[in-house]
């Protein structure tokens, strides 16, 4: 409660939460507060209280639709508040289990969102390939990468004409850093880059600092959250937590992000989860990671060896999700401003 009072007082007093000479821009990904059921205007007003510089509408549902008049109204409200906008969509890979063919072909969906980005003033369209479910099955992850690259190339002319780049996220355990680098380079780095997520590398048995260092030249925007990782009898536990409650070295990550990705948004996407167990001693587990170099996995193991079971708050039930998301985000904003100096 004292933390929330501090933040409220800071916002009310108009004290800047971000230093004027900060090498990155502080942002909020609205997935952090996905259960609020707010309009885009309410989202923007809330973010403005914390002197947010960039608001990341990671999915179309948060911005309330792609009608031109509506998008223009959202843009006008953001400009009045001095906030830059980014918008996003979901899967652009036709062979992914996450792809929604009912919305049109992958190229049609990408091009439609590019048009929306131009209207709302977003320099990027955030998108993703799929999830960890795409690492196993009849099509290997390399096949999905080829299919996603083909879809992206189909929208290349539109993106270049609009001066909008596609920021592909390392999403929900779909790709490791070097795999996403391959996708960007296959699709075309002149119009495709990366939405770098700091929590998802742990879902691909990867050290997030390695992911950052691999993808830094291509980073256009980001999702940032902390993670706790530790050894369990069954394998390795991974739990997303509030900023400052993990053991992945989020302070060092923030420092390196500022060094390597100057000027890019450092946008909090705070998600608190139950532990996810990676049973790496089971031979079948490696069906999804046949091409992972041993030295990379060793870095992931080192994080787990240095960790201890996380005893923090459990994810809330549906009835309290909205209030807990606000608490988790505001605690993370506080930590990012006061400790990380973002």
In total, the number of domains comes to 1
The biggest beta sheet is recorded as: 8 strands, parallel
Could you estimate the helical fraction of the residues in percent?
Answer: 25-40%
Derived from helix and strand composition plus strand pairing, the structural class reads alpha/beta
Morphology call: globular
CATH topological fold name: TIM Barrel
Residue windows where pLDDT falls under 50 for at least 5 positions: 1-21
Label the CATH architecture. Answer: Alpha-Beta Barrel
Q: How widely separated are the two ends? A: 22 Å
CATH superfamily: Divalent-metal-dependent TIM barrel enzymes
How would you spell out the order of helices and strands? HEHEHHEHEHHEHEHEEEHEEHH
Side-by-side strand order of the widest sheet: 7-6-5-4-3-2-1-10
Mean pLDDT: 93
Beta-strand residue percentage: 15-25%
Gyration radius over CA: 19 Å
SS field, number of helical segments: 12
At the first level of CATH, the class is: Alpha Beta
- The number of strands is 11
């Amino acid at each position: 409660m004292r933390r929330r009072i501090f933040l409220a007082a800071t916002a009310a007093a108009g004290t800047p939460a971000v230093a004027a000479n900060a090498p990155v821009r502080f942002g909020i990904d609205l997935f952090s507060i996905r259960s609020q059921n707010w309009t885009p205007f309410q989202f923007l007003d809330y973010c403005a209280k914390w002197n947010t510089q960039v608001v990341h509408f990671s999915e179309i549902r948060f911005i309330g639709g792609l009608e031109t008049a509506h998008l223009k109204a959202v843009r006008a409200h953001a400009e009045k508040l001095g906030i830059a906008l980014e918008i996003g969509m979901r899967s652009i890979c036709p062979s992914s289990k996450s792809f929604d063919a009912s919305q049109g072909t992958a190229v049609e969906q990408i091009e439609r969102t590019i048009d929306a980005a131009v209207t709302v003033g977003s320099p990027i369209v955030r998108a993703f390939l799929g999830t960890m479910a795409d690492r196993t099955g009849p099509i290997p992850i390399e096949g999905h990468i080829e299919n996603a690259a083909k879809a992206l190339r189909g929208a290349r002319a539109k993106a270049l004409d609009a001066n909008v780049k596609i920021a592909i996220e390392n999403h929900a355990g779909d790709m490791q850093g070097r795999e996403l680098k391959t996708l960007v380079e296959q699709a075309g780095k002149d119009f495709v880059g990366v939405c770098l997520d700091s929590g998802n590398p742990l879902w691909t048995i990867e050290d997030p600092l390695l992911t950052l260092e691999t993808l830094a030249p291509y980073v256009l925007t980001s999702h940032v959250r902390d993670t706790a990782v530790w050894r369990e009898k069954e394998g390795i536990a991974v739990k997303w937590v509030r900023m400052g409650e993990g053991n992945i070295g989020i302070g060092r990550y923030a420092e390196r992000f500022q060094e390597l990705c100057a000027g890019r948004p450092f946008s909090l996407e705070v998600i608190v989860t139950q532990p996810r167990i990676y049973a790496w001693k089971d031979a079948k587990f490696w069906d999804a990671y046949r091409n992972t170099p041993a030295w990379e996995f060793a870095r992931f193991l080192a994080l787990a060896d240095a960790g201890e079971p996380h005893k923090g708050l459990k994810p809330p039930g549906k009835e309290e999700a909205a209030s807990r998301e606000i608490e988790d985000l505001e605690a993370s904003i506080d930590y990012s401003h006061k400790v990380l100096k973002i």
